[in-house]
Specification:
By secondary structure, the chain is mainly alpha-helical. The protein contains 19 helices and 12 strands. Strand 1, helix 2 and strand 2 form a beta-alpha-beta unit. Helix 16 crosses helix 17. It binds glutamic acid (GLU). The site of glutamic acid has 9 residues, from helix 6 and strand 9.
Length: about 500
């Protein structure tokens, strides 16, 4: 028996597994809230051994942004949000792209017209106007014959949803519970635009059905549209997915995070020196509580324990200080090699001298770095000795002052000069040997050496590490500069 096109499509719908999708519109960047939606969607699929689908919702051509799709692919790949399936049955894994499926939606709109839940609207200006105009639309009352005749004659039209005039629509949301709205408050939204492309609202429903989506996860800004989606499902006679609407991510108690107001997107955070793993971990906990005290989780660990019940109804506040804490934790947990690799570009922003090994500096930084972009300013003394005030040599705790420092540097210079090996052990032994000889604390030797070598008091690493990394010649040169400066100061 021949199947209709509709039956053929239905026959292809996968059943019996948890299927979720992330359905971003290509806006040019990945919002923190979007990333969180993607994560929860992925986590639900992976927790249940189901499928996770990526669908690009790009039917709004006016909002088209060059390169925006690449941002989505790149972010997903970096974050480890791998997706399953692709548009071709048995073909390669790849995203579904709505503009590539454009032929499909018109057919479904026709089907809905046939079923009486949509109608063609030929009105000139009402094309894409948002808002409430159900009563006002004269085309709602056109007979099918007249509508068909005018369409066949080539008159342009949009397809609108026919919302019942009376009654109410109830839908269930996993986070917000049952929500009921009066149908009289819903507008006959446009489903197919004059250019033949579907609106986001229509393509979204058709695709969720055709892709067999079981859980629709998205921002709570879509809560108010959901009754209209429900009426579409009902109009087609399709089963309704579980809705999971997530409250927004806020920048403070009153305002949503917004790129326009300068809040960072995912890419901004990475450019600011945050690690992907830390961002992903932190963002997952914005509005989802795994229960218990533990906060640091890998994606796999989260997938194991993920439970919708842990998603909060109240908005979450994005706290950059908290993200810093996560980032520092992740940095400390990295292998020294991995950290050196991540830190190298930031080290090289400040340290251009090719003789200096960035990995040696990285080792000094790892335990104390919160964000990679903090690195360059800490290293401003390696390439060039900064101008500094000899008052830096005065240090009560080390029991030293300018005169004492001058004396010590004069003593240390020949000892360093004579060192056959230049490494941590030999440098340290030279300084502790001097302290012993003078019967003073090590600090009284090390402080002036550090100031002379770095020209500043706060440095990553101490005198030993800085001298080692600078190398013998440069250290000696800087010690001589220090002696000269101090000679002038104490004169
Ligand atoms: N394309 C919509 C957006 O980017 C997604 C809404 C949904 O997931 O249903 O906001």
């Amino acid at each position: 028996m021949d199947m209709t096109w509709f039956e053929q499509m239905e026959a292809r719908i996968p059943k019996g597994e948890v299927r979720t999708r992330f359905a971003p519109s290509p806006t040019g960047y990945m919002h923190v809230g979007n990333l969180r939606t993607a994560l929860y969607t992925w986590l639900i699929a992976r927790h249940n051994g189901g499928k996770f689908i990526l669908r690009i919702e790009d039917t709004d051509q006016e909002r088209y942004v060059e390169g925006a799709v690449d941002v989505i692919y790149r972010t997903m790949a970096q974050c480890g949000l791998d997706h399953d399936e692709g548009p071709d049955v048995g073909g390669p894994v790849g995203p579904y792209v709505q503009t590539e499926r454009r032929g499909l939606y018109g057919k479904y709109a026709e089907l809905l017209i046939e079923k009486g839940h949509a109608y063609r609207c030929f009105c000139e200006k009402q094309e894409e106007t948002e808002g409430f105009e159900k009563i006002a639309d004269p085309c709602r009352g056109l007979s099918r014959e007249e509508s068909d005749r005018r369409a066949a004659a080539g008159e342009p039209y949009v397809v609108r949803q026919r919302i019942p005039e009376e009654g109410s629509t109830t839908f269930h949301d996993e986070i917000f519970g049952d929500i009921t709205v009066e149908n009289s408050t819903l507008d006959d939204q446009v489903l197919i635009k004059r250019d033949g492309l579907p609106t986001y609202n229509f393509a979204n429903v058709v695709d969720d059905h055709l892709m067999g989506i079981t859980h629709v996860v998205r921002g709570s800004e879509y809560l108010s549209s959901s009754p209209k989606y429900n009426l579409l499902y009902e109009g087609f006679g399709w089963s309704i997915p579980a809705y999971v609407h997530c409250s927004p991510v806020m920048r403070d108690a009153h305002n949503k995070m917004s790129k326009r107001h300068g809040d960072p997107s995912y890419e901004d955070l990475i450019a600011q020196g945050y690690l992907t793993d830390a961002v992903v971990n932190y963002v997952a906990l914005l509005g989802w509580s795994p229960g218990g005290e533990r906060e640091i989780f890998t994606m796999r660990e989260m997938a194991e324990i993920f439970d919708l019940k842990g998603i909060s109804k109240s908005p979450a506040i994005f706290d950059i200080e908290k993200l810093k804490y996560f980032n520092a934790e992740y940095i400390r947990a990295m292998s020294p090699e991995a950290f050196a690799k991540a830190a190298e570009p930031f080290i090289r922003r400040a340290v251009k001298n090719p003789e200096i090994d960035p990995a040696a500096i990285a080792a000094l930084l790892q335990q104390r770095t919160e964000v990679l972009t903090d690195i360059p300013e800490k290293l401003d003394f390696f390439d060039e000795l900064p101008e500094y005030d000899t008052a830096l040599y005065i240090h009560k705790k080390s029991k030293t002052d300018e005169a004492g420092s001058l004396e010590m540097l004069r003593k240390m210079l020949p000892i360093f000069e004579a060192l056959p090996d230049w490494n941590d052990e030999s440098i340290l032994a030279a300084m502790t040997g001097m302290a012993e000889k003078c019967e003073c604390k090590n600090a009284k030797v090390m402080w002036p050496v550090r100031i002379a070598a770095a020209g500043k008091a706060v440095t990553p690493g101490g005198a030993v590490e800085i001298c080692r990394i600078l190398g013998k010649d440069e250290t000696l040169r800087r010690l001589r500069v220090g002696i000269e400066k101090l000679e002038k100061a104490v004169r």
